């Protein structure tokens, strides 16, 4: 009997050793013939991008380089976790992919951390760089002045609205709100006239929705007050301004007057999907402050196909606080393809990026993914201009703003997210939130880098 | 086993030379592994907690030694104080009241019952314990969320739904943790209660002691050591609970379930402040040590 146990023991040991050996071999397979691309997926995220890679770019690339296997290595995480996970991935020589999609607001941080490869010398020989829109290019240039990625899209934000619900509430279509109070009035009218199930206005308001809370909600409001986050002339963060206080007050008012969604829905990490894949197509959401890319949500290859979307919906420009000049405002960001410093196949990765960034291929992406193009020549294409809502969205770019491309922005952004959540859950008043914003941001960027207005 | 111990040990109780050498050789691998994978990371954690190490940005590349700045910032941080408070509430409700008391009651009720009864009930309770934490969290989210099982039942019997995870977040995570962890305490207490000599109890009963008196004067003093050991184990386990809370509520809404592990995660991986995060983890460690020492001292037992 004991003999059998011993054999069994040795057997287990052998299996373990074999497993260890197998694991250690795995890293070596990533060599010249493999190209790994990392992006965010899950819950319908980036389904257009995946479709485009699989059906357009990878087949083209394999025609030219038949020996190279392109593998998609998506991260199925929430938006907030994606950046942390990418930072960790890029630190490791073994785990780093060869191409990573970077939100342009992270490019500067990740570049300063040494995670990304500067592309200047490669771009010089490329000859396509001049076709990219100037202010979009700024998003991929880090503080050291080097270029760390090739943008593949940009965006603008505005107010999606359901024409029928607004009509029922007695609001004339097309809806053109002139100030924040126009928005509140419309939402109040919808609440009074509509059924109890209709959510008058949806703004991402939680920590779980991460950057979407900072940019689609807080900054869309703040940049309409005339007080931006960062004074780029004097290189100082504005930690106290009327704009900050009024922004917190507006957010508070929406929930105070019960114009927003249930907190249990909006504070959820899946908040955006709930709003634009369920509520809006079902006619249960009247106004949504969000980006043009939601058009891709309802596209036939999107996560929630909705053929009538563009007859039912309108896309209005976000007004400034009191209608002050220039009347409307927007925020723009976008994503870029970058090469990690730890990639072991940089030359191939660059070949891939070049192929993905041509005029034809970028146009194909926007036709599926419904984001704005970073290329000026694509923006002139007829098929591009014919995409629903793109006329509006492109118009918003006139008065758009970009997030401060400085090292500490991601940290400030998380402060914004938690303060917004604290305000909507009534844990603190807007005044306290403004006070805490000053304290927290000063702590992050240092006393010498802040200013008050 | 029946060999003479003096073959290996000197009169003073020390190991004889060849024997000592042999033990060193055999223990060396495990010492090395412990040093490498246990002591090393702990020392590194202590080191990083005094730096401004970040996940991204310039500070990911050049870390600076910042002294006690992280700790100063922590005690100045209202969110930290909230987290400590939430951790204590979570610990008290789910570990001490929930797992410890409930586990003891279950063990007591099962004592002396039929084997088949013990087995069936035992398996049902242990099912909660063998279920991985993430699965437990998903089960409870499915049960408690806005359109979850509980609200379906409430609707079916004509009551209005309650947003459990939003209205009662702390109670919800505590119940989930109790459901998950009670079996462990129950098993520990079962083993210990079985060791209480029946003669003692019988003698006390014959002397006219009530059931409560038998419990408080005889059973509890005998199992006191187990209570403390279990309290320490459960406390340390509960202090480290992350998956369950993160999945169920994400620490929210607001900060209402933001215990220290969640706070630490948010600082390290959401705010990218790894240095600050490690400093918080050290505080968590200190809280664990203090709680353990407190139990040992207050119950006057030797572990």
UniProtKB/TrEMBL annotation, chain A:
Which Pfam family name is an example for this entry?
SBP_bac_1
Keyword tags: Signal
Source organism per UniProt? Virgibacillus kapii
- Respond yes or no to whether keyword GTP-binding is given for this record: no
* Signal peptide region: 1-21
List the PANTHER family hit by this protein, alphabetically.
ARABINOSE-BINDING PROTEIN-RELATED (PTHR43649), BLR3389 PROTEIN (PTHR43649:SF14)
Q: Does the keyword Signal apply?
A: yes
Q: What's the name of the protein?
A: Sugar ABC transporter substrate-binding protein
């Amino acid at each position: 009997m004991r003999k059998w146990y011993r054999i069994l023991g040795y057997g287990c040991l052998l299996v373990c050793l074999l497993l260890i050996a197998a694991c250690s071999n795995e890293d070596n397979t990533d060599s010249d013939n493999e190209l790994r691309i990392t992006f965010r997926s899950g819950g319908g995220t980036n389904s257009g991008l995946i479709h485009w890679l699989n059906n357009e770019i990878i087949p083209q690339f394999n025609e030219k380089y038949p020996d190279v296997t392109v593998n998609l290595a998506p991260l199925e995480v929430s938006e907030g976790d994606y950046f942390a996970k990418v930072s960790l991935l890029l630190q490791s020589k073994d785990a780093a992919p060869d191409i990573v999609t970077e939100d342009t607001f992270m490019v500067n941080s990740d570049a300063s951390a040494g995670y990304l490869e500067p592309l200047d010398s490669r771009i010089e020989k490329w000859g396509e760089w001049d076709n990219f829109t100037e202010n979009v290019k700024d998003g991929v240039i880090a503080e050291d002045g080097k270029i760390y990625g090739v943008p593949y899209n940009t965006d603008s934000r505005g107010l999606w609205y359901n024409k029928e619900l607004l009509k029922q509430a007695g609001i004339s279509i097309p809806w053109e709100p002139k100030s924040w109070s126009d928005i509140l009035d419309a939402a109040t009218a919808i609440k009074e006239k509509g059924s109890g199930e209709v959510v008058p206005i949806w703004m991402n308001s939680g920590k779980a929705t991460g950057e979407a809370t900072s940019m689609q909600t807080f900054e869309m409001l703040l940049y309409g007050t005339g007080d931006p986050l960062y004074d780029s002339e004097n290189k100082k963060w504005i930690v106290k301004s009327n704009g900050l206080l009024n922004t917190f007050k507006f957010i508070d008012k929406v929930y105070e007057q019960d114009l927003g969604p249930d907190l249990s829905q909006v504070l959820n990490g899946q908040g955006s999907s709930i709003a634009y894949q369920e509520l809006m197509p079902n006619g249960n959401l009247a106004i949504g402050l969000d980006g043009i890319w939601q058009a891709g949500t309802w596209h036939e290859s999107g996560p929630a196909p909705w053929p009538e979307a563009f007859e039912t919906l309108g896309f209005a420009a976000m007004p400034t606080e009191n209608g002050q000049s220039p009347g409307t405002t927007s925020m723009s960001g976008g994503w870029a393809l970058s090469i990690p410093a730890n990639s072991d196949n940089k030359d191939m990765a660059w070949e891939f990026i070049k192929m993905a960034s041509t005029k034809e291929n970028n146009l194909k992406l926007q036709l599926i993914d419904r984001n704005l193009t970073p290329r000026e020549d694509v923006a002139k294409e007829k098929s591009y201009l014919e995409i629903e809502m793109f006329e509006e969205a492109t118009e918003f770019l006139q008065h758009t703003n970009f997030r401060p491309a400085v090292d500490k922005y991601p940290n400030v952004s998380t402060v914004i997210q938690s303060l917004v959540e604290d305000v909507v859950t009534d844990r603190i008043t807007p005044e306290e939130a403004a006070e805490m914003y000053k304290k927290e941001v000063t702590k992050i960027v240092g006393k010498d880098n802040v200013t008050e207005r | 086993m029946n060999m003479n111990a003096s073959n290996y040990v000197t009169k003073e109780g020390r190991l004889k030379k060849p024997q000592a050498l042999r033990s060193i050789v055999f223990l060396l691998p495990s010492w090395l592994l412990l040093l490498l994978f246990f002591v090393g990371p702990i020392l590194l954690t202590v080191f990083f907690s005094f730096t401004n190490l970040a996940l991204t940005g310039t500070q990911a590349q050049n870390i600076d030694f910042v002294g006690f700045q992280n700790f100063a910032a922590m005690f100045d941080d209202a969110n930290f104080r909230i987290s400590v408070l939430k951790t204590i509430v979570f610990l008290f409700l789910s570990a001490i009241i929930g797992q410890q008391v409930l586990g003891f009651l279950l063990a007591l009720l099962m004592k002396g019952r039929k084997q088949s009864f013990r087995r069936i009930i035992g398996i049902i309770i242990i099912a909660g314990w063998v279920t991985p934490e993430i699965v437990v969290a998903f089960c409870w989210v499915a049960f408690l969320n806005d359109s979850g099982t509980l609200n379906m039942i409430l609707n079916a019997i004509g009551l209005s739904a309650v947003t459990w995870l939003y209205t009662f977040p702390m109670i919800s995570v505590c119940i989930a943790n109790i459901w998950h962890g009670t079996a462990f305490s129950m098993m520990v207490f079962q083993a210990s209660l079985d060791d209480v000599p029946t003669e003692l109890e019988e003698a006390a009963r014959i002397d006219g002691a009530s059931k409560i008196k038998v419990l408080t004067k005889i059973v509890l003093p005998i199992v006191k050591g187990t209570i403390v050991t279990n309290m320490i184990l459960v406390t340390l386990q509960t202090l480290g609970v992350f998956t369950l809370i993160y999945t169920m509520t994400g620490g929210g809404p607001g900060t209402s379930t933001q215990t220290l592990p969640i706070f630490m995660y948010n600082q390290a991986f959401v705010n990218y402040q790894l240095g600050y995060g490690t400093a918080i983890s050290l505080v968590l460690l200190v809280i664990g040590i203090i709680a353990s020492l407190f139990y040992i001292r207050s119950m006057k037992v030797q572990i």
